[in-house]
Amino acid sequence: MITMKDIVREGHPILNHSAKDVSIPPTEQDIETLKKMIQFIKNSQDEKIAEEYELRAGVGLAAPQIGLSKRMIAVHFEDFNNQLYSDGYFNPKIVSHSVEFTYLSSGEGCLSVDREVAGYVPRYARITVSAINLAGEHVKLRLRGYAAIVFQHEIDHLNGVMFYDRINKQEPFLIPEHAKACDVD
Ligand code: SB7
Ligand code: NI
């Protein structure tokens, strides 16, 4: 099982590199890895398991965060309208996005970053993601709000981009142009 000791922390160069495409169909090993990544996120949200294994709660995980430079992400979270996103994706790609931006009003964090970095992270308000899911199906996801933010955070990891790279250095709480806030709970 994946635990916090498997999570690569900032400063490790893999987090600043572009990850490699996964060959399709994915190998049994790639599928197994992605399943373990989803299980880790679920475990991190389970109070008892998280306490026992000292897991920090997360809603997503990208393969570079476990030291694997492959284009794979896992998510497990509920959107504001209670829609569950729980799957793993190979080669996710943003194929279109809105002009409008959004940002999480509470800012973002990252399992690979052991400190708080304050500021707004500008994200596209709406994105369409094409990917191969864990079941091997080609999917097109139309995402907005919180779901769009989470997928952008994970896809950024595949491109060597950290959330704080997108925070305005001079004015961290500057509201991005053409942006509406996204509030969690
Ligand atoms: C806040 C947190 C996340 C995404 C968007 C907003 C994910 C945190 C866990 N991760 O570090 C996953 O890469
Ligand atoms: Ni992260």
UniProtKB/TrEMBL annotation:
Family: Belongs to the polypeptide deformylase family.
Record EC number: 3.5.1.88
The keyword Ribonucleoprotein appears for this protein: no
Keyword line: Hydrolase, Iron, Metal-binding, Protein biosynthesis
Catalysed reaction equations from the record: N-terminal N-formyl-L-methionyl-[peptide] + H2O = N-terminal L-methionyl-[peptide] + formate
GO MF annotations in UniProt: metal ion binding; peptide deformylase activity
Positions in coiled-coil regions: none
Annotated residues for binding of Fe cation: C110, H153, H157
InterPro entries (UniProt xref): Peptide_deformylase, Peptide_deformylase_sf
UniProt function note: Removes the formyl group from the N-terminal Met of newly synthesized proteins. Requires at least a dipeptide for an efficient rate of reaction. N-terminal L-methionine is a prerequisite for activity but the enzyme has broad specificity at other positions.
Active-site positions on this chain: E154
Cofactor comment: Binds 1 Fe(2+) ion.
Protein name: Peptide deformylase
